[in-house]
């Protein structure tokens, strides 16, 4: 069994421990100590990282009461090593996890929902609740949660007896082997949890709920706390200032300015589409349809343009019409159609000759191929 120093002092950054075992583990090593301040993966968050002497600890896991440190270099069994946590990472996780307790406690007390899925990743923290929450309700939860942060409440850690647990009201009340550890945020949450937490809610700094989606009949909420919330604000603040400058508008009016710009773009897109259709009609009027197969190569066509031009030429009397857009270097996109004959055999022949791909219905096929325009025309006219 490994002595869990992180339960004695969650703010302990350095310690000394005796190496009990060191085993090869892929290109790394698994090291067990007699005691450690490294918290192993559990409770929805990754294991602590840091250093044992000069060997980097990249992960920490627990198995059957023994905590194993995954390190980048071997350590001699029997020696005493100095452990140093990556405190920036540990403190960040403590901010997120303590913030999660406040949010989950509020949701549970207000709606009766359970947190059925918690993930504390390197960049984000998500909570899955088994019931619906509206955006307005989420804003209210966020506001109340930050009231709890600003109140700088002391976070309690207790180890009730089995008899006490029977009458105690707390979240995550499931059968747990061994001693149950209870985290209490006064007025907000009482929950069984094994992870390190902050001593007071003020250290969270800020709780920001940045995203929510419907998930398995409930809601998945993404949360940022403390330095993560500050970093998120800085990015959005910088983007807001940049957009404000580009649009020559005030920062608090950028959404309205972008909406106006979007409306203008949609209007111009509609006008451009109408002009393109007129241009294609003029183009079709100038193309003769005297040959068995009418072939058109136009790199300027895009979207539905090739198909529209093909249909206009078929309406004009072409028996078979093939329209190509692209170039000889990168290849051509094609559409071939007819009102009188099955064009699939022609499509197959063109694909086989020019390494193309595509297909479709008897009256129309489309695809891509690579070749010289002259050679493609010759193959089309070959019949």
Question: Characteristics of this structure?
Answer:
383 residues; alpha+beta; Elongation Factor Tu (Ef-tu), domain 3; Threonyl-tRNA Synthetase, Chain A, domain 2; six-stranded antiparallel beta barrel; five-stranded mixed beta sheet; elongated
Alpha plus pi helix count: 9
Count of folded domains: 4
Helix-strand topology string = EHEEEEEEEHEEHEHEEEEHHEHEEHEEH
Overall morphology: elongated
Tell me the total number of β-strands.
Answer: 20
Mind telling me the C-alpha Rg?
33 Å
Could you estimate the helical fraction of the residues in percent?
A: 25-40%
Looking at how many chains there are and whether they match, the oligomeric state comes to: single chain
The percentage of residues in β strands lies in 25-35%
Please tell me the CATH architecture of the largest domain by its name.
2-Layer Sandwich
* Sequence stretches where pLDDT stays below 50 over 5 or more residues: none
Main sheet? 6 strands, antiparallel, barrel
CATH class of the largest domain: Alpha Beta
Describe the structure.
It is a single chain. This protein has 383 residues and is an alpha+beta fold. It has four domains: 83 residues, Elongation Factor Tu (Ef-tu), domain 3 (Beta Barrel), CATH 2.40.30.130; 144 residues, Threonyl-tRNA Synthetase, Chain A, domain 2, CATH 3.30.980.10; 37 residues; 95 residues, Roll (Diaminopimelate Epimerase, Chain A, domain 1). The protein is 36% helix and 31% strand. The protein is built from nine helices and 20 strands. The strands form five sheets. A six-stranded antiparallel barrel has the order 2-3-7-6-5-8. Strands 16-17-18-20-19 form a five-stranded mixed β-sheet, sandwiched between helices. It has a four-stranded antiparallel β-sheet with strand order 9-10-15-14. Strand 14 and strand 15 form a beta hairpin. Helix 2 crosses helix 3 and helix 6 runs parallel beside helix 7. The termini are far apart. The model has no long low-confidence stretch (mean pLDDT 94).
């Amino acid at each position: 069994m490994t002595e869990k120093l992180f339960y004695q002092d969650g703010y302990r950054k350095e310690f000394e421990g005796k190496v009990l075992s060191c085993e090869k583990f892929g290109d790394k090593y698994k090291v067990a100590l007699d005691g450690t301040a490294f918290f192993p993966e559990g409770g929805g968050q990754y294991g602590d990282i840091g250093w044992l002497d000069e060997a980097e600890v990249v992960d920490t896991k627990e198995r059957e009461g023994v905590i194993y440190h995954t390190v980048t270099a071997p350590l001699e069994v029997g020696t005493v090593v100095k452990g140093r946590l990556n405190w920036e990472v540990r403190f960040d996780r403590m901010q997120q996890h303590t913030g999660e307790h406040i949010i989950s406690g509020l949701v549970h007390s207000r709606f009766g929902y359970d947190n059925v899925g918690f993930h504390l990743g390197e960049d984000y923290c998500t909570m899955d609740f088994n019931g619906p929450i509206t955006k307005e309700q989420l804003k209210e939860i966020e506001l109340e949660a930050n009231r709890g942060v600003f109140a700088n409440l002391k976070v309690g850690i207790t180890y009730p007896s089995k008899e006490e647990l029977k009458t105690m009201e707390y979240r995550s009340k499931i059968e747990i082997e061994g001693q149950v550890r209870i985290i209490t945020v006064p007025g907000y949450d009482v929950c069984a949890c094994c992870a390190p937490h902050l001593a007071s809610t003020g250290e969270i700094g800020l709780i920001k709920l940045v995203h929510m989606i419907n998930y398995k009949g409930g809601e998945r909420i993404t949360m940022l706390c403390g330095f993560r919330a500050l970093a998120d604000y800085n990015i959005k603040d910088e983007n807001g200032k940049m957009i404000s400058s580009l649009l020559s508008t005030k920062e608090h009016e950028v959404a309205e300015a972008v909406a106006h710009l979007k409306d203008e773009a949609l209007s111009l897109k509609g006008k451009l589409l109408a002009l393109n259709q007129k241009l294609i009609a003029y183009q079709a009027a100038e193309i003769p349809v005297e040959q068995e197969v009418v072939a058109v190569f136009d790199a300027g066509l895009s979207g539905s343009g090739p198909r529209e031009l093909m249909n206009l030429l078929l309406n004009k009397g072409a028996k078979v019409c093939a329209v190509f857009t692209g170039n000889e270097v990168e290849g051509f996109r094609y559409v071939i159609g007819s009102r009188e004959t099955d064009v699939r055999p022609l499509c197959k022949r063109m694909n086989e000759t020019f390494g193309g791909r595509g297909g479709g219905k008897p009256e129309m096929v489309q695809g891509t191929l690579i070749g010289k325009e002259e050679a493609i025309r010759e193959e089309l006219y070959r019949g």
